[in-house]
Amino acid sequence: MTHAIPIRREARTGHLDLALHLAADGLPVLPLRADKRPFSNCRACEDLACGGRPNMRVPGPCACPWPCHGWAATATDPTVLASPQWTAAWRRARAIGYHPGGAGVTVVDLDNPAAVDWARATLPPTATVTTTRGQHWIYRGTLRSVNGVRPGVDLKSLMSYARWLGPGTGALADLPEAVRALAEKAPTAIRPAPRSVAVPAPAGGGACRHRSSVYLERGIAMAEQRITDATSGVHTTVYRTFLAVLSAHGRCGCLTEAHIGRLFAAAQAKGESPRHCADAWSNAATTLGL
Length: 290
Fold this sequence. Notes:
34% of the residues lie in helices and 13% in strands. With 290 residues, it is of the alpha+beta class. Strands 3, 4, 5, 6, 7 and 9 form a six-stranded mixed beta sheet that branches. A three-stranded antiparallel beta sheet has the order 1-2-8. β6 (146-150) and β7 form a beta hairpin. The longest helix is centred in the last third of the chain and has 16 residues, at 213-228. It is globular and about 55 Å long. 37% of the residues are buried.
């Protein structure tokens, strides 16, 4: 573990070329799509047959040599990064991701100006990278990754990935207790009262496929990610995401308070109020006749 990030790498042509130089400095990297997501699971792990988690944070037991499980697919070995299995992904890549925890650092992802102002008033100065909406404050040290620790603030370290946006400015400071404390707090959410909806049994008998933990978990994780990745029109994105979740899972009675709470927490991390979350959920349910 390097306990540092590269600080002197200039921009280069070609994502693979830059990735190889970053990896040489000890930064575990992987290719990202235009929407900042990792590339899809490999064929051997299709539909998470290997046992990986759909939120891409917990890999299965496979040892695939190509982009497969988000952060767990990051590598520093140039023979892996430039292998034939990775070539197609790098050709299609629009950004480079890296595993902060693998580099011994934590990224405090500040998603808006208000979050940046909070950091300046609360946290010690450290290496800073400008993002499209705010800043990444990078500290030496690792902790568990948590989204939505406060409005507009995510923590990316172990079992997570961040987008490489350049070396930034300033020197790395040690991870402060104020950030460690945030990782121990869970975001709060006001949850709507659950609705019971009677539906006929599946044709031909058998269990509703929504009761499959993999199917349902994958749907909730994708919905969380859709909200988290919203760069504009957050109100509309939240409503449409709630509508999609209820359309797929609202009639079988499989959604729990925990599932709904996760969606509300993701929305609140993007700046939505608890009241708006409740209204958006209620409106989506009404639209679908639930």
